[in-house]
Amino acid sequence: MRKPVIAGNWKMYKTLSQAVDTALALKPLVANANHCDVVIAPVFTAIKTVADRLEGSNIRVAGQDCSTETEEGAHTGEVMASMLRDVGARHVIVGHSERRQFYSETDETVNKKTHAGIKSGLTVIMCVGETLDQREQGSAESVVSQQLSGGLSGLTASDLDRIIVAYEPVWAIGTGRTATPEQAQEMHAFIRRVFAERHSAAAAEALRILYGGSVKPDNIEGLMKQADIDGALVGGASLKAESFAEIVNYRR
Ligand code: PEP
Fold first, then answer.
1. What stretch of H or E contains 127?
2. Average pLDDT in the 70-83 region?
3. Among residues 98, 105, 130, 168, which one is catalytic?
4. Does the beta carbon of 168 lie inside 6 Å of ligand 1?
5. What is the mean pLDDT of the chain?
6. How far is the CA of 176 from the centre of ligand 1 (A)?
7. What is the DSSP letter of 80?
8. Contact at 8 Å (CB) between 125 and 233?
9. pLDDT at position 184 over 90
10. pLDDT digits (tens, 9 = 90+) for 16-41
């Protein structure tokens, strides 16, 4: 039985005090959410304080990205996965489409970050997803398959326990246009099949696959009813404690 994960990606929003206020407002609202893992990803500068203030709660804190580097050194502007772990993060998001699109991240970069996260004891939420053009050209599955094999290359069987895949069709991110539960299910089932072929049936069965792309309180229930949807990665609707809590506490 896969435990769902509901993760909030706060992107480049919120000052430190706003991040703390949101996290503290969220805490009582999701305190009884034992049915899923709850994760929030504030900006780097808020991770330590938010993680400290949430200590003892059921909310885990994630980094939104990490460096490909795993040794300290002259890499201005970079933050290592082990440094995220050091300040209280337990997860890291890698390969978000905004990183791929605006910061030219390739599958190779994503793969290095995935290894760095795992090496540092973090659970890695690796994002994959096709653009609208790619979907319309009928290449959504080949794009996602390529992102999966590139991003997960060189991982051992035990590393796979620390992987969560987030399927985020680029055309659904921040657009208000969600994939239908059926469209999402179809791709999630495909991802699980690819995972089984590349790794093992057992690893595929255990893999948690999150859907991301305009998830809101009013569409989470339909998505979570699908057999291969094991949670959500939520952007906009995670910025307010109340709406994120509604998503976490979806009707089961
Ligand atoms: C995201 O940033 O990962 C995301 C899915 O954003 P939104 O929920 O706003 O579409």
1. strand 123-128
2. 98
3. 168
4. yes
5. 97
6. 9
7. -
8. yes
9. yes
10. 999 999 999 999 999 999 999 999 99
Name all contacts of 106-111 with Cβ < 8 Å and 24+ positions apart: 106/150, 107/146, 107/147, 107/149, 107/150, 107/151, 108/150, 109/68, 110/147, 110/150, 110/151, 111/150, 111/151, 111/152, 111/153, 111/154
Helix, strand, or coil (residue 61): strand
Backbone angles phi, psi at 210, to 5 degrees: -95, 150
- At residue 24, the pLDDT reads 98
Distance (angstroms) between ligand 1 centre and the Cα of 90 equals: 20
Cα separation, 69 vs 81, whole angstroms: 8
User: Which pLDDT score is estimated for 177?
Assistant: 84
168 is catalytic: yes
155 lines ligand 1 (CB under 6 A): no
pLDDT of residue 175: 87
Residue among 234, 238, 239 to mutate when testing ligand 1 (max atoms within 8 A of CB): 234
Active site annotation includes 78: no
Domain spans, the chain: 5-248
233 Cβ below 6 A of ligand 1: yes
If you take atom 1 of ligand 1, which residue's CA is the nearest one? 235
Residue with tokens 């997860």: 91
Tell me the average pLDDT across 123-127.
98
5-248 belongs to which homologous superfamily?
Aldolase class I (3.20.20.70)
Q: What's the pLDDT tens digit per position in 160-183?
A: 999 999 999 999 998 888 899 999
Contacts of 158 (CB under 8 A, 6+ apart): none
pLDDT tens, position by position, 52-68? 999 999 999 999 999 99
Identity of the amino acid at 227: A
